Amino acid sequence: MSENNNNFDRLVDAILDWDATQMANFVILHSLKVWASDIHIEPWEWNVRIRIRIDWVLHSLTEYQPSLHDAFIARIKIMSKLQTDEKRIPQDWVINTSLEGWWEVDLRVSTLPTVTWEKVCMRIQDKTKTIPTFKEMWIRASWLHNLETAIKKPNWIVLVTWPTWSWKTTTLYSALSVLNQDGVNIMTVEDPVEIKMAWLNQCQVVEKIWYTFPIALRAALRQDPNIIMLWEIRDKETVEIALRAAMTWHLVLSTIHTNSAVSTINRLLDMWVKPFLIAWTVNAIQAQRLVRRICPNCIEKYTPDEHIIEDIKKELEWLPDSEWLDVSKLDSIVLSRWAWCEECNDTWFKWRMWIYEVLEVDREIEEMVVAWRWELSILKRAKEKWFVTMIQDWIIKAIAWFTTIEEIFNIVNT
């Protein structure tokens, strides 16, 4: 904490000294050391505030006078190789920079003209972090075998889904680190290339020169690949090429934006993909998100109220026998909640953890997709067999004292 406070003091000194260069350096450095993922510079008529996102929640960092704003934004634009004299239209770019001589980071900088001045958002990608393994990503053993089996098949397509901020690309990189061997040729089509991996043929899409996902994907298929990692499925043309690649003995890994694993099937149908193509090519769909993990230094045990226990029982009603959790014994459970400590910056949570749901498209699910069965029918059938929903995974981890039950229901109800 003392080191973080020292960086914050240096930032305040830079603001008082009107030193835009040091301001930019210390904002980024402080954000990295408190594990922030984004920096927001938000101007208003009488003040400009800087906020940073830590474990999904925005926290105010500091404020400065508007008279310093132009110089500060100009410094960020110089670092980002953006046009310093262009303030009328949005700009964005990805830059690589180093801090303290060794801390390599990628900054995805985006500017936006507002009614006052330009707003800036910087997403931080720490290049010094290692790619986590599946076991380090909190994937339970009951799903780990199915997922590893799915990505090691010579063809089919495996999709990772959920909206932004869920580290879907990190999951794909973890899969590629398992598959990256001498006997296979791996191509990736990304925008941007977030992590450079040895002996992967990674391609950067450039929309400005019409080097789009479909064009890059077609070119990658002419490079004799065994495995293709597609950064995101966005449109009908891209998904059709990806599915045809899976049908011609290629393993395709990609992400797509949906709200659950089962709803991904409806999303593909909405892109006018024929049901039989989905049934024949999609092997597994994993939905995931990041939730805040309770700080281990200020954890406190308590017995929940009766209505909370009833809500937990309701959510775990369809839990498969493979999870070894007796719902009838939940009346005496003990949960965890926060207390207070400086280690977690007084936020009661420290870092984040993954929660998942994995839908394996087996023969019975294939038949339901071809028959145009509704999403709820597929979900009900999957639950009856082996499917564990994301909320159930979340509750199981709350019962194991990794997060709080209040955190779950607050997010579910919003």
Description:
The chain contains 14 helices and 15 strands. It is of the alpha/beta class and 414 residues long. It has two domains: 2-126, Beta-Lactamase (2-Layer Sandwich), CATH 3.30.450.90; 135-412, Rossmann fold, CATH 3.40.50.300. It has a seven-stranded mixed beta sheet with strand order 9-8-10-11-7-12-15, sandwiched between helices. Strands 3-2-1-6-5-4 form a six-stranded antiparallel beta sheet, with helices on one face. The two termini are 32 Å apart.
Which features does this protein show?
single chain, 414 residues, alpha/beta, Beta-Lactamase, Rossmann fold, 2 domains, seven-stranded mixed β-sheet, six-stranded antiparallel β-sheet, 14 helices, 36% helix
